[in-house]
Amino acid sequence: MLLDQRHKKSNHRWDRGYELSIIVTPAKDEEKNLPDLIRSMVNQTIKPLLWVIVDDGSTDDTPNIIRKAQENHEWILHIRLEEHPRDLSKHYAYVCNIGFNFSVKYCKAHNLQYDYIGILDADMILESEFYSKLIGEFEKNPLLGRASGSAYY
pTM to 2 decimals? Predict the structure, then answer.
């Protein structure tokens, strides 16, 4: 998981348990891992403003798992790409860019402002204060531009 600070942090403080962040998760055939990741995201003390899960043409139940999460949480969105052979090289960057470009356009169209943007792998499980701790590091050091943390697999 990697989180970047998009611009100097405003005086915004966490309210309602949501932070001004966008998270993108590329996922392909992650039906075994995705439910645990979704639970760990829902249980975060600070949830993202927007979480975009990009389904990279899964052939398992991944699309249905994401759709169910999207129905239950308005801050979760789903992009479905065409089915194709698995590719972890340049295609991974392509999938991430699709998610980031969509997220930025979505926020602009809905007049949503964000301070942070991050990527999260679909096979991770986060402790409940994962984002709270990462964002706390940005709060402590306004010169910090990028941070990451460890998670459970």
Answer: 0.84
